[in-house]
Amino acid sequence: MRASLSLALASSVAFSALAVSGCGQDTGSSKQAKLPKAVDRLNSLSRGELSALETYRQAIAKDGSASAELGNLRREHEEANAQLAARIRALGGTPPTDSGAWGDFAKAIEGTAKVFGNDSAMQALRAGEAQGTRSYESALEDSDLDAASKTLIRDTLLPRQRGHGAVLQRLIDAPAGTPAVR
Asked: How many separate domains does the chain show?
């Protein structure tokens, strides 16, 4: 019962935070950009990556046996954000410096972990990764996004993002105290 309640809460927290993530938050700028709508989409993806960085920082601070794996995932989000920022600059935009409403997701993860423990936090991390995957998939369908940005997403960012869910699932499924191998 507790596991299903915590999973439901984790999912609810993830989706509630994501529902407000697009509500007028503009922590990057597309005003001077060559392709403003493309920059807006990339800024949204970057805010998601910034939120992931904060979420993983908090999860790693919990000092569980999965810290090394979570650290690897955090580094991959850091690389993804750097790549998105480079594309945003290449299009004449300004990348965001904070996660905006996506930061609410990171705070929700921390609260979930404090109330329900690490298992719930891992479930919420997995839900966040699933949303990140959907965001990248949706970006590929965006007719306003330029070809170079779509190539970056399709060939680099999306495959890496999809792998994160698998890593987290292994960590969730691993017996307590057993390090999950990547």
From this structure: 1
In a domain, 142, yes or no: yes
Q: What pLDDT digit, counting tens, does each position of 26-40 carry?
A: 456 656 667 889 999
Parent domain of 55: 2-22+36-173
Q: How far is CA 179 from CA 67, 81, 95, 134, in A?
A: 10, 27, 36, 28
> Smallest Cα–Cα separation from 165: which of 128, 116, 137, 136?
128
Nearest CA-CA partner of 61 in 11, 118, 6:
118
In a domain, residue 128? The reply is: yes
Q: Which positions ≥6 away from 48 have C-beta within 8 Å?
A: 21, 99, 102, 131, 132, 135
Q: What is the pTM of this model?
A: 0.78
> Kindly report the CA angle at 85 between 80 and 87, in degrees rounded to 5?
100
162: in domain: yes
Flag whether 29 is in a domain: no
Tokens 């996660």 belong to residue: 99
